[in-house]
Amino acid sequence: MAKAATQFACTDCGYSAGRWFGKCPQCGEFGTLVEEGLPPKAGRAGPKATLRLVDVNAEEAERIPTGVPELDRVLGGGLVPASLVLVGGEPGVGKSTLLLSALAAMSKDRRALLVTGEESTAQVKLRAARLGGAENVEILAETELDAVCATLEQERPDVCVIDSVQTLYSSELGSAPGSVGQVREAAGRLLRVAKESGVATILVGHVTKDGAVAGPRVLEHLVDCVLQFEGDRYHEHRVLRASKNRFGSTNELAVFEMTGTGLVGVPEPSELFGRTVEGEVGAAVGCVLEGSRPLLLEIQALVAPTDLAMPRRVGTGVDPKRLAMIVAVLSRHAKAALGQADVFVNVAGGVRIDEPGADLAIALAIASAAKGAPVKHGLAAFGEVGLTGRLRPATQSERRLEECGKLGLVAAVAPAGTPARGKLRVLEAQTLRQAAKAGIDGERAEPG
Asked: Which long-range contacts (CB under 8 A, 24 or more apart) does 29-34 make?
């Protein structure tokens, strides 16, 4: 009897080969190639007529508001009809709760369908009763891919949520649900159904231990939008950000608070994350820009002597490489004694920042912890730190200053040339050393 044809696919990047490798040739990970059956061969398709771009009717479809303003912000204004959106996050972070709330709001004037593969219909109803307003949401408990696609083609709802894509399986493939082949096949089939039937489809995906969406990378390439739901299940605040968006910006950020009645958007996160205690050493307020939203964040730093040959530079919520660079610039140009000290930096609230405009606030927090003197109360900071110790202007400084004024701050340390805004006083600095002397109590400011 002939042996069934199989292939080996990488669970991280989707690379496939005819034999097993201990190390994936494409992504370099060890032990990630698993055996799976080959997909059935499709019949040969005939040629199709082509079109010129000038002949294509490109009418922009009206977006579908989800009823959750913070979710609409990250999506770029709402769901695009016939789009495929992937929402990833750790188990228990609130993905199903958020999407059920969105379905409940959209079901008031549109057909909304929930395909659940992880929970029974009774379990979903209990959650819906707690959230309220989800009486019109249609539900289907099914994990067979053919049945799900046939239902979407026949019913043609306006919006469909599939929770989750890892539970779907096709009987034509021999592998188990959640394998590379099954996830790839499910995403490809659902993409075709969404485009042909005009169904805005949201896929819920699990994440791996390093925070990436589980399954092959081709899953992220297929979909139109990838949203990452971040947060700790033991804390009440969650952050939603887009890592890919064909219809909007990938720099937008939304903050939610977990309550007894579900997730509630936080329209003013600066009030939540930007509060500091007067006189506290090692804490500074930074004004960062997340898409179109300026956000005030508390940056915390701790500098402690060490006996290690290589002092540690540990950052939570900041890029470790950029943190090491800021520490080096502080040591060289601001005369901060950090060569024999461990440096720990944390962004309060569990928010992650990647913008260079947060460099100055991180540097002020570290300098405050190193000198044992607090940052002046009511002060914010923003600006990019260069390797020469000179500060570079941050983009959209006027919007940052407006946000600082809304929170009641009285001054801001910023690179030279930053125009003042309203009653907020701007302490201009050309170098990092000048900024540290202007922003930290007990330091005498140098002349510019």
From this structure: 33/8, 33/9, 34/8, 34/9, 34/179, 34/180
